From TrEMBL:
Gene3D superfamilies: 1.20.1280.50. Residues 5-56 form the F-box domain. This is F-box domain-containing protein. It comes from the Eukaryota.
Length: 417
C-alpha cells in the first residue's frame, strides 16, 4: 500500500491531470480533491475545470411529473453531467423524507439550487412550505412557512387562495445576483434569496411581495398596488423567472389586450414595474413561447411558429445597456429551423416550447415525445429518459442548469475552510 501511494505521489502533474480528467463521477472527483493539497491544486485549476466539462452543457436536465401523477422526478438531457436515468428528488436530497420531497412542486432553479413547494404538509389554507434544495451538496434548506394571511383578511385568503384570482411567481437568486457595491453579507457562495410575488383580483387588485434571505430568520412582506389593474384570471404564466442584473422578469399573456407583458422586479431597489411587449397573441398558444436571455444578456422571446418547426428569436434592443429601466425596442434577431436527425425536409411535426437554458431549448411534440434543440445549430435530440406517451407541461416543469466548474471549485474551497 505504501509503495502504491509513493508511486502515485511521484507521478508528474501532466500524467495526474490525464487520470483525473477521466474520473466521471462528481463525488469521486471531489474525494480526489480532498486527498491532498497537490491534487486539490490540479483540480482547482481553471484550465482543468474547463477541459473536464468542455463537452457538457450547463443545462443538465429538468424536474417535472408525469401528467396526472404526483411524483416529481429529474430527467437528464442527452450527455448530462449528472448521468443518465430518471431519478426521484430524494436520490439527491436525503435529509428530507422521500414521501414528502418526491411529491414536491418544482417552482424555480438557479445555479444548482432548486426551489420547491412541499404539498403534503399539514398547514392551514393560505400557508405554504417552501424549501431550497442544493442537489450536488445533497442539502435541503427548509424556509419558514410562507403565510399569505398576514397582508389580507384571513377569511378572504381561505376562500380565494386556490382560485383563479390568485397567481404566484417565484425566483431564486444567488449572491452574484444580489450583491452591489460592498455588501459583504451577501458575498458567500452559500447565500441565496427567494422571491415570491402574488397578484390578487376579485376586489383586492394588488400585488404582494415576499422575500426571504438565507442570512435572515423570517420573510419580509410588502404590499404593492401598482399592478392592481391586472386580472390574474386572464393570464397564463410559468412560475419560474428570468434573472438579469439583479432584476427578475416573469412573462405572461393578458387575454383582454391579446398581448404579452412582463412583471419586472428590481431586487436591489424593490421597484416593481409592468412592461407591455410588442407581440400580438394571434399566432398561437402560450405553450409556443418562452422568455429567456440571449447570449449577449438581452431579454429574448423564443417563439415557435404555429405550423412546422421554425423558431423565431426576438431580442430586446436596449438604448442604454447599463440601465435596465431604459426604453427599448424588440426585433426578430433570427429564425432557425429545428431538425431532428432523420427528419425529412417536408415533415410537418408541430413542436411546443417547454423552456430554455444555456442555449438549449426543451420541446415536446403532439405525440408527447420530448427533445432538446441547440439554438445555434437547430439540431434536435430526443430525451430518451422521458417516459413515452406522458404529457409534459411548462407550468409543471423547471429546467435545471449548473455552472459545474464554478460549483466544483466552490466545493473544494468550502471543504478546505
Amino acid at each position: 500500500m505504501e509503495e502504491a501511494a509513493a508511486m502515485v505521489a511521484s507521478l508528474p502533474d501532466d500524467v495526474l491531470r490525464e487520470i483525473l480528467v477521466r474520473v466521471t463521477n462528481l463525488a469521486d472527483l471531489l474525494r480526489c480533491g480532498l486527498a491532498c493539497k497537490g491534487w486539490r491544486r490540479l483540480l482547482a485549476d481553471p484550465t482543468f475545470l474547463q477541459r473536464r466539462w468542455s463537452d457538457q452543457a450547463r443545462f443538465v436536465g429538468f424536474f417535472g411529473r408525469k401528467y396526472g401523477h404526483e411524483e416529481l422526478f429529474f430527467t437528464p438531457t442527452p450527455r448530462s453531467a449528472l448521468g443518465p436515468g430518471r431519478r426521484a428528488l430524494s436520490s439527491f436530497v436525503t435529509a428530507v423524507p422521500a414521501a414528502l420531497i418526491d411529491k414536491a412542486v418544482p417552482l424555480a432553479s438557479r445555479h444548482g439550487l432548486l426551489l420547491v413547494r412541499l404539498k403534503h404538509v399539514d398547514l392551514e389554507p393560505g400557508i405554504i412550505q417552501l424549501a431550497v434544495c442544493n442537489l450536488l451538496a445533497g442539502a435541503c434548506h427548509m424556509l419558514p412557512p410562507l403565510d399569505f394571511r398576514s397582508a389580507f383578511d384571513a377569511s378572504w385568503v381561505r376562500a380565494n387562495f386556490h382560485s383563479r384570482c390568485h397567481w404566484n411567481g417565484y425566483a431564486i437568486l444567488t449572491s452574484t445576483d444580489c450583491t452591489s457595491g460592498g455588501d459583504d453579507s451577501r458575498s458567500t457562495s452559500s447565500f441565496f434569496q427567494v422571491v415570491s410575488i402574488s397578484i390578487y383580483s376579485k376586489g383586492m387588485n394588488c400585488s404582494f411581495l415576499h422575500t426571504f434571505s438565507s442570512n435572515e430568520a423570517s420573510w419580509r412582506v410588502r404590499t404593492d398596488w401598482s399592478l392592481g389593474i391586472m386580472r390574474p384570471d386572464k393570464f397564463m404564466s410559468s412560475v419560474d423567472a428570468v434573472v438579469r442584473r439583479g432584476t427578475v422578469h416573469w412573462v405572461f399573456r393578458y387575454d383582454e389586450e391579446v398581448c404579452l407583458h412582463t412583471i419586472d422586479l428590481n431586487t436591489r431597489t424593490g421597484h416593481i414595474s409592468l412592461t407591455k411587449l410588442p407581440f400580438l397573441m394571434n399566432r398561437g398558444g402560450y405553450n409556443d413561447l418562452c422568455l429567456t436571455l440571449a447570449v449577449n444578456g438581452a431579454l429574448s422571446v423564443l417563439w415557435m411558429q404555429t405550423q412546422g418547426t421554425q423558431l423565431d428569436i426576438w431580442e430586446e434592443q436596449e438604448e442604454d445597456q447599463l440601465n435596465v429601466d431604459a426604453s427599448s425596442e424588440w426585433k426578430c434577431a433570427r429564425t432557425i429551423k429545428l431538425k431532428e436527425p432523420g427528419m425529412k425536409e417536408n415533415d410537418a411535426t408541430q413542436l411546443y416550447v417547454v423552456g430554455e437554458k444555456s442555449g438549449i431549448l426543451l420541446l415536446t411534440d403532439k405525440y408527447q415525445n420530448v427533445y432538446t434543440a441547440n439554438l445555434e445549430t437547430g439540431m434536435m435530440e430526443e430525451v430518451v429518459d422521458w417516459p413515452y406517451g406522458y404529457y409534459i407541461h411548462h407550468k409543471d416543469t423547471v429546467l435545471f442548469e449548473m455552472d459545474l466548474p464554478a460549483i466544483f471549485s466552490s466545493w473544494l474551497d468550502t471543504k478546505y475552510t
